[in-house]
Design brief:
Elements lengths: L1 H8 L8 H16 L4 H25 L10 H16 L9 H13 L6 H26 L10 H12 L4 H26 L5 H9 L2 H14 L1 E3 L4 E2 L3 H7 L2 H19 L2 H12 L6 H18 L2 H18 L5 H11 L10 H7 L6 H20 L1 H11 L1
Helix pairs in contact: 1-2, 1-7, 2-3, 2-4, 2-6, 3-4, 3-17, 4-6, 4-17, 5-12, 5-15, 5-16, 6-18, 8-10, 12-15, 13-15, 14-15, 14-16, 14-18, 15-16, 16-19, 18-19
Length: 395
């Protein structure tokens, strides 16, 4: 992940331009968090940002201008860009952030609708680009840089790359395993485009390599590919896996899916869904349902865990859509995308808390900036994406 981030920052088009560095930091964080934990991505990008800000401070001091980074606009913007991009990138893939997987699980269990990895990426890529564009425009307007060039920025990045040294065997093995998993995940999408529906090859592939097998295959390869075979050292050991995997989060996933399944089987979600539909006059549109539950998911995720918020709202939203005779796909995806819009408070997401701890972000700035992005983002989820999903379902 560090090699990938430094590779983006070292591109010629980035250089020492503060606006382009701002963009590159956001891109690196967003693209990494589509595949890596949002929290880990923010923690990884933070030292890079602090180093760049230190270069700015030294450059200005050399020119006789002392600054306090806790009151420096560009520092606030760069920290917020790091946190927001780490959350935004999570919408790219089903594994990017917990709400995505949770809602896909609810769709599969409660509505017998299976969304493939490739299909989610089609929607997630659009959402990521829209969210990222909103965040970039808002943050660059509110927190512009007051210098045309950051002296020492290129040297700083070059030094960090030199510190990494040459590629290790473990890094090469990890890249191979990652590529295997991604290829297995997206292959059904390409086969669906190349082959007619019901083709035996496509059916056989889906039977032999479902998405769970693709994930397990990539992970198991890490235990089999050696770093030093004579010493029986492999890419990952069980001791490392035990510490690195968030088992509590997996249990939370399973608990939430079990709770949602029981709400559905016992008829509780149907009863609540009928009450909600009745309170709306008995007739609701697709856009209305998406808007109501997307806003609910956003508000809850601002104040509590977005995973918990999705577990609470997901079963109700799917049941309401089914009760109203509408497709549950738009509202399910809308909730997942909205739950990633927790930008207002330090407690909303771990990336927010990580950058807030630097002391460079006044709470009032996070609140006011987050409101802008949340409102615009919800509008994008509710109207354009709803229309896109409805068109996709009908088509």
């Amino acid at each position: 992940d560090k090699r990938f981030s430094y590779w983006i920052l070292s591109r010629k088009w980035v250089g020492s331009n503060p606006r382009r560095i701002f963009l590159a930091i956001g891109m690196a964080a967003a693209l990494c968090s589509g595949w890596v934990s949002n929290t880990a991505t923010a923690a990884m990008m933070l030292p890079i940002c602090l180093g760049l800000l230190s270069a700015i401070k030294d450059m200005l001091a050399a020119n006789g201008k002392e600054i306090d980074l806790s009151e420096y606009k560009y520092a606030t913007g760069l920290m917020l860009m790091t946190a927001y991009s780490a959350s935004i990138g999570g919408v790219l893939t089903p594994i990017g952030t917990p709400p995505n997987l949770i809602m896909l699980g609810f769709l599969d269990q409660m509505a017998d609708v299976h969304i493939s990895f490739f299909q989610w990426m089609e929607w997630g890529f659009i959402a990521m680009v829209v969210y990222f564009s909103i965040a970039y425009v808002v943050l660059t307007r509110l927190f512009p840089a007051d210098v045309e060039r950051i002296e020492g920025a290129e040297e700083f990045i070059a030094g960090r790359i030199a510190e990494l040294g040459s590629w290790t065997r473990a890094q090469k093995n990890t890249l191979i395993c990652f590529a295997v998993a991604v290829v297995l995940w997206v292959m059904p999408g390409f086969l669906s485009m190349a082959l007619p529906p019901g083709d035996p090859v496509l059916k056989m592939y889906n039977r032999l390599f479902p998405e769970a097998i693709a994930a397990m295959g990539g992970a198991l390869l890490l235990f089999l590919m050696p770093i030093n075979f004579s010493e029986r050292r492999f890419t990952i050991r069980w001791e490392e896996a035990k510490e690195g995997i968030e088992w509590g989060t997996l249990i939370l996933f399973g608990g939430g899916l079990a709770m949602g399944s029981m709400m559905y089987k016992t008829g509780l979600s149907a009863w609540i869904g009928d009450l909600i539909v009745g309170s709306m006059g008995g007739s609701v549109s697709q856009v209305t349902i998406v808007a109501v539950f997307s806003v609910m998911a956003l508000l809850l995720s601002e104040l509590t865990s977005h995973t918990a918020a999705t577990n609470m709202i997901g079963p109700l939203a799917i049941t309401v859509a089914v009760s109203a005779g509408l497709s549950p796909i738009p509202v399910a995806v809308g909730i997942a995308l909205s739950a990633s819009l927790g930008f207002m408070l330090p407690v909303s997401t771990p990336p927010n808390a990580i950058v807030y701890a630097t002391g460079y972000i006044p709470i009032t700035k996070m609140l006011s900036t987050g409101v802008y992005i949340d409102i615009i983002g919800i509008g994008c989820v509710t109207i354009p994406l709803s229309i896109y999903f409805v068109t996709w379902v009908l088509g």
